[in-house]
Structures
1.
Amino acid sequence: MHCSNFGYRSVLDPRLELRDRLCELARARMWFGYQRLHVLLWREGWTIWRELTYRLYTEEGRQLRSKLLR
């Protein structure tokens, strides 16, 4: 392994505001999946693609709740 790999730090933008807004929407609308949340974000003016919405949704530990809660 090359020694330059040991000091590698990711340069990806964490998009903290987007993550916060996605979590707020997911908390307010528990029955919405990532696709419907993506549409809500798009209507608010966030220009992101659906795959990024899915990645952020799953990284936050979110998943669509089952309707069979008895």
Note: The helical segments are 16-28, 34-44, 50-59.
2.
Amino acid sequence: MKILLVDDEKKFVSSLAERLTMRGIAADWTTTCEEALEKAPRPEYDIAILDVKMPHMSGIELKKEIEAKRPDMQFIFVTGHGSEESYKAGTREAASYIIKPFKIDLLIEKINELREK
């Protein structure tokens, strides 16, 4: 299993990938939606963890684009801007919706839930 992390905050997303890898979860990352759209069709990615608010395209829009190419991929949203409206939209579109900052154990728990499905 391999995870694709997409967040426009480079320090956050690179650190998150490193922390997941240290815990035995293979993770790759990008800071742009364009690069995510290039990487996502690769069969090694099973889960995409997407930031909801990014420049040029929201995580929800990105999820729909990826899903068109990879209908089997599963998604988790993360955000630092947890409005009620984005929460409702995010929970309709993904298995989980996590507010930043979060503990790595919570994310791993959500990843493991998806692995079991």
Note: The chain has five helices and five strands.
